[in-house]
Amino acid sequence: GYQRVLEENRKLYNQVQDLKGNIRVYCRVRPFKPGQSNTLSSVDHMDERTITILTHSKNGKEARKAFTFNKVFGPSVTQAEVFSDMQPLVRSVLDGYNVCIFAYGQTGSGKTHTMTGPKELTEEGLGVNYRALSDLFHISNQRKETISYDISVQMLEIYNEQVRDLLSADGGNKRLEIRNSSHNGINVPDANLVPVSLTSDVINLMNIGHKNRSVCSTALNDRSSRSHSCLTVHVQGRDLTSGNILRGSMHLVDLAGSERVDKSEVVGNRLKEAQHINKSLSALGDVISSLASRSSHVPYRNSKLTQLLQDSLGGQAKTLMFVHIAPEYEALGETISTLKFAERVATVELGAAKVNKDSGEVKELKEQIASLKAALARKE
Ligand code: ADP
Ligand code: MG
Question: Which of 38, 108, 250, 317 is within CB 3.0–4.6 Å of 98 for a Cys-Cys bond?
């Protein structure tokens, strides 16, 4: 009886997760810069799920367009609040899931703020990367009587369709290959894989990574906005009773700026960079939207980014896309194209009808779980 209740409980939990879908899209709106508070905003309205943008129609009249997300985070939402919402997703890595978390948006919209934090890092400012790892350390420690976990990280950069190791001692000058058949979930075997067990380990590594990344940039030529950076966390857990091994991974990706560059204005390297960024962001969009629409062919091969993440996009893997919005009215053009990208990657999950139907079912399943839990508690 007891075992059956447990099993039933787990099955229902998985069903709830399935109903919620494996692809989620969140929108985060950056606050105005200090001293900018009276600036005209392109954001007309926000609630927990919807953002309404002020646009102008062809005849010059004001018009509004609404976009729906799994969640909308307004400008006053803190780093801790953002993280607490995604904590269950992060923790699922310890149960053997593969997770991808992306930060998408134009340069200056807050991608690095979400993933890493502000330049002057404070405790409250810590971004998802630090919080996720601290949380994994915390939970793995809590489980140490039953499961022994090894956690290690890689830090890669994709620039102009080339992969570099940001944790390499030579500053990451060597180009690395992505292996098609990954070994233990590690598909860039030549990149450093560094065991970590303390938040301070992570902070040290991230500092090395950031230094290596900026070696190749000048003040005028900020490379970090034109390359993707990916912090990958590999988790291996050994069940101390059965000896079974489980593996999970989490990719935390700060994407290159999504802004369109005017082709008439850039030439040479700058144009090449822009083309590579365009290609890889649209390849990512294509992969996620074909996963969302359960298409039989998923075009992973079209960019280094999607090749790198192939094992962690689709199947049982979970994807969270954070799209970032700059509130200034001048950014409207980019804001609309960002929201359109978000709409495209979430075709299935975000349809209003589907959401309503699901939420009823999810509610019902949640109620069943609650009553099973109560039954379980009575047995104990
Ligand atoms: P991106 O990485 O997309 O180019 P940044 O993360 O560097 O953008 O953000 C641009 C600036 O705005 C930075 O100074 C950053 O600290 C600030 N910023 C971004 N998002 C927030 C936020 N949610 N709250 C406070 N400041 C933010
Ligand atoms: Mg950035």
Answer: 317
